[in-house]
Write the C-alpha coordinates for this entry.
Amino acid sequence: MPPAERPHDPRITVIQQELFDEKKSKVAKYQDLVVGRPGWGALLGFELVTLASWVPGALGLFLRGKLYPLVLGRVGRNVVFGVNVTLRHPHKIAIADNVVIDDQCCLDAKGTDNRGIVIGSGVFVGRNTILSCKNGDIVLDDRANLGFNCEIFSASTVRVGKDVLMAAYTYLVGGDHLYDRVDIPVLQQGRTARGIDVGDGVWLGAHVVVTDGSRVGRDAIIGAGAVVVGDIPEFAIAVGTPARVVRDRRSEGAAAGGGPQPPVPGP
Ligand SMILES: CC(C)(COP(=O)(O)OP(=O)(O)OC[C@H]1O[C@@H](n2cnc3c(N)ncnc32)[C@H](O)[C@@H]1OP(=O)(O)O)[C@@H](O)C(=O)NCCC(=O)NCCS
Protein backbone atom coordinates (compact mmCIF):
# COMPACT_ATOMS: atom_id res chain seq x y z
CA MET A 1 0.00 0.00 0.00
CA PRO A 2 1.47 3.44 -0.87
CA PRO A 3 2.15 5.72 2.11
CA ALA A 4 -0.68 8.11 3.02
CA GLU A 5 -0.06 11.45 1.39
CA ARG A 6 0.91 14.20 3.78
CA PRO A 7 1.50 17.78 2.71
CA HIS A 8 4.94 19.37 3.06
CA ASP A 9 5.03 21.82 5.94
CA PRO A 10 6.76 24.92 4.52
CA ARG A 11 7.35 26.34 8.01
CA ILE A 12 9.99 23.72 8.87
CA THR A 13 13.49 25.21 8.65
CA VAL A 14 15.68 23.58 5.98
CA ILE A 15 19.19 24.41 7.13
CA GLN A 16 20.93 23.88 3.78
CA GLN A 17 18.56 26.35 2.11
CA GLU A 18 19.11 28.91 4.85
CA LEU A 19 22.89 28.52 4.86
CA PHE A 20 23.40 28.75 1.11
CA ASP A 21 20.87 31.50 0.37
CA GLU A 22 22.93 33.86 -1.78
CA LYS A 23 20.61 36.80 -1.19
CA LYS A 24 21.55 36.99 2.49
CA SER A 25 24.79 38.23 4.02
CA LYS A 26 26.77 35.98 6.36
CA VAL A 27 25.82 38.20 9.30
CA ALA A 28 22.12 38.00 8.40
CA LYS A 29 22.30 34.20 8.18
CA TYR A 30 24.08 33.98 11.54
CA GLN A 31 21.46 36.21 13.11
CA ASP A 32 18.59 34.19 11.63
CA LEU A 33 19.97 30.78 12.56
CA VAL A 34 21.84 31.45 15.81
CA VAL A 35 20.89 34.73 17.50
CA GLY A 36 17.25 34.74 16.37
CA ARG A 37 16.83 38.50 16.66
CA PRO A 38 17.74 41.34 14.30
CA GLY A 39 20.05 44.27 15.10
CA TRP A 40 23.65 44.79 16.16
CA GLY A 41 22.67 45.10 19.84
CA ALA A 42 21.22 41.57 19.88
CA LEU A 43 24.24 40.22 18.01
CA LEU A 44 26.83 41.84 20.29
CA GLY A 45 24.95 40.82 23.44
CA PHE A 46 24.81 37.23 22.25
CA GLU A 47 28.51 37.19 21.35
CA LEU A 48 29.56 38.58 24.74
CA VAL A 49 27.44 36.08 26.67
CA THR A 50 28.74 33.23 24.51
CA LEU A 51 32.30 34.02 25.64
CA ALA A 52 31.38 32.48 29.01
CA SER A 53 30.40 29.16 27.43
CA TRP A 54 33.87 27.58 27.45
CA VAL A 55 35.19 28.95 30.79
CA PRO A 56 36.06 25.90 32.95
CA GLY A 57 35.48 25.18 36.63
CA ALA A 58 33.60 27.17 39.23
CA LEU A 59 34.36 30.48 37.49
CA GLY A 60 32.58 29.23 34.36
CA LEU A 61 29.55 28.07 36.36
CA PHE A 62 29.41 31.46 38.06
CA LEU A 63 29.78 33.46 34.83
CA ARG A 64 27.19 31.44 32.92
CA GLY A 65 24.79 31.67 35.85
CA LYS A 66 25.05 35.45 35.65
CA LEU A 67 25.34 35.97 31.88
CA TYR A 68 23.10 33.36 30.24
CA PRO A 69 19.93 34.82 31.82
CA LEU A 70 20.68 38.09 29.99
CA VAL A 71 19.87 36.46 26.64
CA LEU A 72 17.46 33.70 27.71
CA GLY A 73 13.72 34.33 27.76
CA ARG A 74 13.22 33.48 31.43
CA VAL A 75 15.43 31.77 34.02
CA GLY A 76 14.41 30.78 37.56
CA ARG A 77 16.51 30.32 40.69
CA ASN A 78 19.34 27.77 41.04
CA VAL A 79 19.82 27.03 37.36
CA VAL A 80 23.19 25.48 36.50
CA PHE A 81 24.73 25.66 33.02
CA GLY A 82 27.66 23.29 32.39
CA VAL A 83 30.60 24.04 30.15
CA ASN A 84 30.01 24.53 26.41
CA VAL A 85 26.22 24.74 26.63
CA THR A 86 25.19 26.03 23.21
CA LEU A 87 22.19 28.35 22.87
CA ARG A 88 20.28 29.13 19.67
CA HIS A 89 17.45 31.69 19.62
CA PRO A 90 17.86 31.97 23.42
CA HIS A 91 15.07 34.54 23.89
CA LYS A 92 12.63 31.68 23.12
CA ILE A 93 13.96 29.45 25.93
CA ALA A 94 12.25 29.58 29.34
CA ILE A 95 13.73 27.70 32.31
CA ALA A 96 12.12 27.34 35.75
CA ASP A 97 13.84 26.83 39.16
CA ASN A 98 16.38 24.16 40.20
CA VAL A 99 17.33 23.01 36.71
CA VAL A 100 20.63 21.47 35.59
CA ILE A 101 21.77 21.79 31.98
CA ASP A 102 24.87 19.59 31.95
CA ASP A 103 28.11 20.03 29.96
CA GLN A 104 28.02 20.14 26.14
CA CYS A 105 24.23 20.37 25.82
CA CYS A 106 22.63 22.24 22.95
CA LEU A 107 19.40 24.17 23.49
CA ASP A 108 18.26 25.19 20.02
CA ALA A 109 14.93 27.04 19.82
CA LYS A 110 15.36 27.90 16.15
CA GLY A 111 12.30 28.84 14.09
CA THR A 112 10.43 31.71 12.53
CA ASP A 113 7.07 31.52 14.32
CA ASN A 114 7.53 28.94 17.09
CA ARG A 115 7.30 29.46 20.85
CA GLY A 116 10.53 27.53 21.53
CA ILE A 117 11.70 25.52 24.55
CA VAL A 118 10.05 25.44 27.98
CA ILE A 119 11.87 23.63 30.79
CA GLY A 120 9.97 23.05 34.04
CA SER A 121 11.31 23.10 37.59
CA GLY A 122 13.63 20.38 38.85
CA VAL A 123 14.50 19.17 35.33
CA PHE A 124 17.89 17.51 34.68
CA VAL A 125 19.31 17.52 31.15
CA GLY A 126 22.28 15.12 30.89
CA ARG A 127 25.50 15.94 29.09
CA ASN A 128 25.68 15.99 25.30
CA THR A 129 21.91 16.14 25.06
CA ILE A 130 20.44 18.10 22.17
CA LEU A 131 17.07 19.86 22.22
CA SER A 132 16.57 20.88 18.61
CA CYS A 133 13.65 22.89 17.27
CA LYS A 134 13.06 23.45 13.60
CA ASN A 135 10.22 25.87 13.98
CA GLY A 136 8.71 23.57 16.60
CA ASP A 137 8.29 23.61 20.36
CA ILE A 138 9.73 21.40 23.11
CA VAL A 139 8.26 21.19 26.61
CA LEU A 140 10.06 19.35 29.41
CA ASP A 141 7.64 19.25 32.31
CA ASP A 142 8.64 19.41 35.99
CA ARG A 143 11.28 16.96 37.24
CA ALA A 144 11.81 15.28 33.86
CA ASN A 145 15.22 13.55 33.87
CA LEU A 146 17.06 13.24 30.54
CA GLY A 147 20.14 11.01 30.52
CA PHE A 148 23.37 11.57 28.65
CA ASN A 149 23.41 11.83 24.85
CA CYS A 150 19.68 12.15 24.30
CA GLU A 151 18.10 14.04 21.43
CA ILE A 152 14.72 15.67 21.13
CA PHE A 153 13.84 17.06 17.73
CA SER A 154 10.69 19.09 17.18
CA ALA A 155 9.17 20.56 14.06
CA SER A 156 5.75 20.63 15.79
CA THR A 157 5.23 20.08 19.54
CA VAL A 158 7.11 17.50 21.60
CA ARG A 159 6.12 17.22 25.25
CA VAL A 160 7.96 15.23 27.89
CA GLY A 161 5.70 14.89 30.91
CA LYS A 162 6.35 15.32 34.63
CA ASP A 163 8.76 12.86 36.28
CA VAL A 164 9.66 11.21 32.98
CA LEU A 165 12.90 9.23 33.06
CA MET A 166 14.67 9.17 29.70
CA ALA A 167 17.71 6.88 29.74
CA ALA A 168 20.86 7.63 27.75
CA TYR A 169 20.77 7.73 23.95
CA THR A 170 17.01 8.05 23.63
CA TYR A 171 15.75 9.98 20.63
CA LEU A 172 12.34 11.62 20.24
CA VAL A 173 12.02 12.32 16.53
CA GLY A 174 9.29 14.96 16.33
CA GLY A 175 9.32 15.37 12.56
CA ASP A 176 9.48 13.32 9.41
CA HIS A 177 10.49 13.35 5.74
CA LEU A 178 8.13 12.88 2.82
CA TYR A 179 9.15 9.94 0.62
CA ASP A 180 6.26 9.40 -1.82
CA ARG A 181 8.35 10.20 -4.91
CA VAL A 182 11.02 7.87 -6.25
CA ASP A 183 12.53 10.24 -8.84
CA ILE A 184 14.25 12.49 -6.29
CA PRO A 185 16.01 11.74 -2.97
CA VAL A 186 14.09 11.82 0.30
CA LEU A 187 16.18 14.80 1.34
CA GLN A 188 14.56 16.91 -1.40
CA GLN A 189 10.96 15.88 -0.73
CA GLY A 190 9.97 18.20 2.05
CA ARG A 191 9.19 17.81 5.73
CA THR A 192 6.17 17.10 7.86
CA ALA A 193 5.54 16.91 11.62
CA ARG A 194 2.76 15.72 13.91
CA GLY A 195 4.47 15.90 17.30
CA ILE A 196 5.10 13.52 20.20
CA ASP A 197 3.64 13.26 23.69
CA VAL A 198 5.40 11.31 26.45
CA GLY A 199 3.03 11.12 29.41
CA ASP A 200 3.79 11.82 33.07
CA GLY A 201 5.85 9.21 34.90
CA VAL A 202 7.01 7.33 31.79
CA TRP A 203 10.35 5.47 31.77
CA LEU A 204 12.07 5.23 28.39
CA GLY A 205 14.95 2.69 28.49
CA ALA A 206 18.35 3.28 26.92
CA HIS A 207 18.44 3.80 23.13
CA VAL A 208 14.66 4.07 22.75
CA VAL A 209 13.46 5.83 19.60
CA VAL A 210 10.00 7.47 19.54
CA THR A 211 8.80 8.30 16.03
CA ASP A 212 6.78 11.32 14.99
CA GLY A 213 3.07 11.19 15.81
CA SER A 214 3.54 8.76 18.74
CA ARG A 215 1.91 9.04 22.15
CA VAL A 216 3.23 7.20 25.20
CA GLY A 217 0.58 6.96 27.91
CA ARG A 218 1.29 7.96 31.49
CA ASP A 219 3.45 5.68 33.64
CA ALA A 220 4.27 3.36 30.74
CA ILE A 221 7.70 1.68 30.49
CA ILE A 222 9.46 1.26 27.16
CA GLY A 223 12.23 -1.37 27.16
CA ALA A 224 15.79 -0.60 26.12
CA GLY A 225 16.31 -0.39 22.37
CA ALA A 226 12.60 -0.22 21.46
CA VAL A 227 11.17 1.84 18.61
CA VAL A 228 7.79 3.37 19.43
CA VAL A 229 5.54 3.78 16.40
CA GLY A 230 2.05 5.03 17.30
CA ASP A 231 0.34 4.88 20.68
CA ILE A 232 1.36 2.99 23.81
CA PRO A 233 -1.36 2.74 26.47
CA GLU A 234 -0.86 4.09 29.97
CA PHE A 235 0.86 1.77 32.51
CA ALA A 236 1.93 -0.59 29.71
CA ILE A 237 5.36 -2.23 29.47
CA ALA A 238 6.32 -2.36 25.80
CA VAL A 239 9.48 -3.74 24.18
CA GLY A 240 10.99 -4.36 20.76
CA THR A 241 10.73 -2.91 17.25
CA PRO A 242 8.07 -1.78 16.79
CA ALA A 243 7.33 -1.58 20.52
CA ARG A 244 4.67 -4.11 21.53
CA VAL A 245 2.91 -4.28 24.89
CA VAL A 246 4.03 -7.29 26.95
CA ARG A 247 2.14 -6.49 30.13
CA ASP A 248 0.16 -3.91 32.14
CA ARG A 249 1.90 -2.60 35.27
CA ARG A 250 -1.39 -2.27 37.15
CA SER A 251 -2.06 -6.00 37.05
CA GLU A 252 1.48 -6.61 38.43
CA GLY A 253 0.84 -4.08 41.21
CA ALA A 254 -2.50 -5.69 42.06
CA ALA A 255 -0.86 -9.15 42.13
CA ALA A 256 1.93 -7.88 44.41
CA GLY A 257 -0.59 -6.14 46.67
CA GLY A 258 0.67 -2.64 45.85
CA GLY A 259 -0.19 0.17 43.47
CA PRO A 260 1.90 1.42 40.57
CA GLN A 261 5.35 2.61 41.66
CA PRO A 262 7.05 5.79 40.43
CA PRO A 263 10.20 5.29 38.32
CA VAL A 264 13.53 5.31 40.17
CA PRO A 265 15.79 8.20 39.05
CA GLY A 266 18.63 7.01 36.79
CA PRO A 267 22.31 7.93 36.68
C1 LIG B 1 11.41 -3.70 29.73
C2 LIG B 1 12.10 -4.02 31.04
C3 LIG B 1 11.79 -2.92 32.07
C4 LIG B 1 11.65 -5.36 31.61
O1 LIG B 1 10.23 -5.45 31.58
P1 LIG B 1 9.51 -6.79 32.07
O2 LIG B 1 8.08 -6.73 31.75
O3 LIG B 1 9.89 -7.06 33.47
O4 LIG B 1 10.15 -7.82 31.09
P2 LIG B 1 10.54 -9.33 31.30
O5 LIG B 1 11.95 -9.36 31.75
O6 LIG B 1 9.51 -10.09 32.09
O7 LIG B 1 10.45 -9.78 29.78
C5 LIG B 1 9.23 -9.90 29.09
C6 LIG B 1 9.58 -10.26 27.65
O8 LIG B 1 10.12 -9.10 27.01
C7 LIG B 1 11.46 -9.36 26.59
N1 LIG B 1 12.21 -8.14 26.85
C8 LIG B 1 12.47 -7.52 28.03
N2 LIG B 1 13.15 -6.39 27.83
C9 LIG B 1 13.33 -6.29 26.50
C10 LIG B 1 13.95 -5.33 25.70
N3 LIG B 1 14.52 -4.24 26.22
N4 LIG B 1 13.93 -5.51 24.36
C11 LIG B 1 13.34 -6.60 23.80
N5 LIG B 1 12.73 -7.54 24.53
C12 LIG B 1 12.74 -7.39 25.87
C13 LIG B 1 11.93 -10.53 27.44
O9 LIG B 1 12.95 -11.23 26.78
C14 LIG B 1 10.67 -11.32 27.56
O10 LIG B 1 10.43 -12.03 26.37
P3 LIG B 1 9.79 -13.51 26.39
O11 LIG B 1 8.42 -13.34 27.02
O12 LIG B 1 9.76 -13.90 24.95
O13 LIG B 1 10.71 -14.34 27.23
C15 LIG B 1 13.62 -4.16 30.87
O14 LIG B 1 13.91 -5.33 30.11
C16 LIG B 1 14.28 -2.97 30.21
O15 LIG B 1 14.42 -2.90 28.98
N6 LIG B 1 14.71 -2.02 31.08
C17 LIG B 1 15.35 -0.79 30.64
C18 LIG B 1 16.79 -0.76 31.20
C19 LIG B 1 17.44 0.55 30.85
O16 LIG B 1 17.49 0.97 29.72
N7 LIG B 1 17.99 1.20 31.87
C20 LIG B 1 18.61 2.49 31.67
C21 LIG B 1 18.85 3.17 32.99
S1 LIG B 1 17.66 4.49 33.30
Notes: Residues 74-256 form a domain with the UDP N-Acetylglucosamine Acyltransferase; domain 1 fold (CATH 2.160.10.10). Residues 165, 167, 205-206, 221, 223-225, 237, 239-240, 246-247, 266 surround coenzyme A (CB under 6 Å). The helical segments are 15-19, 26-35, 40-50, 57-71, 249-256. The first strand starts at residue 74 and ends at 75.
